[in-house]
Write a structure and sequence with these properties.
The chain is of the alpha/beta class. It has one domain: NADP-dependent oxidoreductase domain (TIM Barrel, Alpha-Beta Barrel). It is about 40% helix and about 15% strand. The strands form three sheets. The protein has an eight-stranded parallel beta barrel with strand order 3-4-5-8-9-10-11-12, surrounded by six helices. A two-stranded antiparallel ribbon has the order 1-2. A two-stranded antiparallel sheet has the order 6-7. The longest helix is centred in the C-terminal third of the chain and has 19 residues. It starts with a strand and ends with a helix.
Length: about 325
């Protein structure tokens, strides 16, 4: 597995990281905690050195699952979590007020079973709280040893500039995949210029890029991914199927899966440090990790990008 420096920090992370949104057991359908724990441990055992989670995933449940999986493996991974999304019942509220952050980080430390969080990220901007107040509190928590490095998620360049004027951040976490490439216009040029790391989420576009769906799926109760990702509808759906055919052709020649091709293409894009991929079972985690043990050729990368432009973005 290829290992990379995260921004200007001394953290080293794998090109493929483990995202744990599904392990919250309340957004991507039902999951089994024991399978989730085994998936985390399998990911680590197969070379994944970054685990990303958040209190918003299952109102803390995903963090608890990560905390259960870590004993005996803590020194092998960078643990990243977030603040700023507070769950009240089924509602998600943005809250970056200092008192809320103080409570969130203590809860995260307890659930994860760690003394220090390696990477603490602002999950989403909060327009109702001055960023200066948020940063002042985060700096106090950092100085107190609660976390090592600060990052952000879902921040446009304007806000990246604003927070970088107040303190150092080492990374940002945007959505990015073959099907969602908007950050190529502004965020990726920005991070390359300023030396920030990028942990992209949504690498497999909610599962669409695995190739397992040949028809638009009707998800089970408790699976809300189609409300977050807009790929499960026409006219984009038919274009995605044509793209998947192209990925399948490359996958067959290499003896890999279309999902592994999609993961590999993503972390090879300029500016991307780690591509986060979810897993519900240990076999999925092992397969995701294997996507980081080889590289697509320049010719293959160009072929794939051309297929994306033709079938998805319409360039």
């Amino acid at each position: 597995m290829e290992q990379r420096k995260l921004g200007t920090s001394d953290l080293t992370v794998s090109a493929v990281g483990l995202g744990t949104w599904a392990m919250g057991d309340d957004f991507f359908g039902r999951v089994d905690d024991n399978e989730s724990i085994a998936a985390i441990q399998s990911a680590i055992d197969h070379g994944i050195t970054l685990i990303d989670t958040a209190p918003a995933y299952g109102a803390g449940h995903a963090e608890e699952v990560v905390g259960t999986a870590l004993p005996g493996r803590r020194d092998k991974v960078v643990v990243a979590t977030k603040c700023g999304i507070v769950r009240t019942g089924g509602d998600f509220a943005r809250n970056l007020k200092p008192e809320s952050i103080r409570q969130e980080i203590e809860d995260s430390l307890r659930r994860l079973g760690v003394d220090t969080i390696d990477l603490y990220q602002i999950h989403w901007p909060d327009p109702d709280t001055p960023l200066e107040d948020t940063v002042a509190e985060l700096l106090k928590l950092q100085q107190a040893g609660k976390f090592r490095y600060l990052g952000v998620s879902n921040f446009p360049p304007k806000l990246l500039d604003q927070i970088r004027g107040m303190t150092e951040i080492i990374s940002t976490q945007p959505q990015y995949s073959m099907l969602e490439r908007s950050i190529e216009e502004d965020v990726l040029p920005y991070v390359r210029e300023h030396g920030l790391g990028v942990l992209n989420y949504g690498t497999l576009a909610g599962g669409v890029l695995t190739g397992k769906y040949t028809e638009i799926p009707e998800f089970e109760e408790g699976d809300y991914r189609a409300t977050f990702y807009d790929f499960f509808q026409e006219p984009v759906w038919s274009g995605i199927q044509k793209l998947l055919y192209e990925l399948q052709m490359i996958a067959v020649k290499r003896g890999v899966t279309p999902a592994q091709v999609a993961i590999n293409w993503t972390f090879q894009q300029p500016g991307i440090t780690t591509s986060l991929v979810g897993a519900k079972r240990p076999g999925q985690a092992e397969a995701n990790a294997a996507a980081g043990t080889w590289l697509l050729t320049d010719a293959e990368l160009k072929t794939i990008t051309a297929a994306i432009d033709t079938h998805v973005t319409g360039k």
